[in-house]
Amino acid sequence: MLAILAYSLTTGLSAFAWNWESFAVLRFVVGLAMGSEWATGTAMTAELWPDRHRGKGAGLMQCGLGMGFFVASLVWLFMSQTGEDAWRYMYLLGVLPGFVTLWMRRGIPESEQWERVNDKRKQTRARKRKGGELSAHEEVLSRFTLVDLFSVPALRRRTLIAVFMSLTTTLGWWGISTWVPPYIGSVAAHAGLPAARWASFAGMAYNVGAIAGYVGLGFLADAYGRKRVTFMFFLMAFLLTPVLFLWTHDIGLLLLVSAVTGFFSLGQYTWMPTWLPELYPTRIRGTAIAFCFNVPRLLAWSGPLVAGTLIARFGGYGHAAVTVGFIYLVGVALTPFLPETNGKRLPEDV
């Protein structure tokens, strides 16, 4: 709730930025809050849904991201006509998610699984402060969760693999996906069509595919396994990138191809809320998810800069996007090394 309030408020305040420095500071706080909210929401979703339907729950949760992007693209279709302050009006609308916290306070329970572990952790730490003797398991439970995450060899190995897989997805997002609307807008402009309108159409088409992909990966992962489906999404994202940016030239067909590409390139995000919670015990689940999600975000900010440099060097979007698209091969190579967890109970301890 605090995270949602924080990013809603600072998104709204971004509308009043008076220079690029103030804007950057506000967006930085938005990023902090969003990373916090996603990790917490992922852990809660995993702990509240039944084992054999956990992927479906993760997919339905993740599709909210695509729905938000779709609505933003739709609103921008009309808002872009309001003049040079149109972007400020868009950010001002960002305060609306804050109202969701009123419903969350009443309608969403805490995870019983987490509450049990949290109560035991509090009791263990209280006894440790009083000088009481702790068992080996209690010593583990009393540790700072980030230290605990890297103290167990099996968890450390999983974390390193998951971080690089997450980096693949995140860098693909910021280094490729963000360029789809301006790319299709530039194709439209070359054909004598309004660039801003077609960029909005592209954003909507891409995110229609993404919404289907978010939900689809979760349902497919429950049916065919986390490893097989995640591997397929990484591979298809790699193969479809040149189809979108190099080999499709008809403006109408571009929208269709962008939707199919969005299914795999954005839809692959659901592997994280589906698979990550099943790799870690309750005592460090939230920390592990946040680490695997946010460390790549700290690195992937370079994606748009790298892609922008490549666009300038290649003189267009196509070869730049395909070059960045080779990052998907990292995900293809690493996916087989995580354990299959489909249908299993969430680990309580390791």
UniProtKB/TrEMBL annotation:
What keyword terms does UniProt attach to this protein?
Membrane, Transmembrane, Transmembrane helix
Residue span of the signal peptide, if any?
none
Recorded superkingdom: Bacteria
Q: What is this entry's stated membrane topology?
A: Multi-pass membrane protein
Instruction: Identify one Pfam family in the record.
Output: Sugar_tr
Q: What is its main location?
A: membrane
Compartments annotated for it: namely: Membrane
Task: List membrane-spanning regions.
Answer: 58-80, 159-176, 196-217, 229-247, 253-276, 317-338
All residue ranges annotated as the Major facilitator superfamily (MFS) profile domain in the record:
1-343
What is this protein's record name?
A: MFS transporter
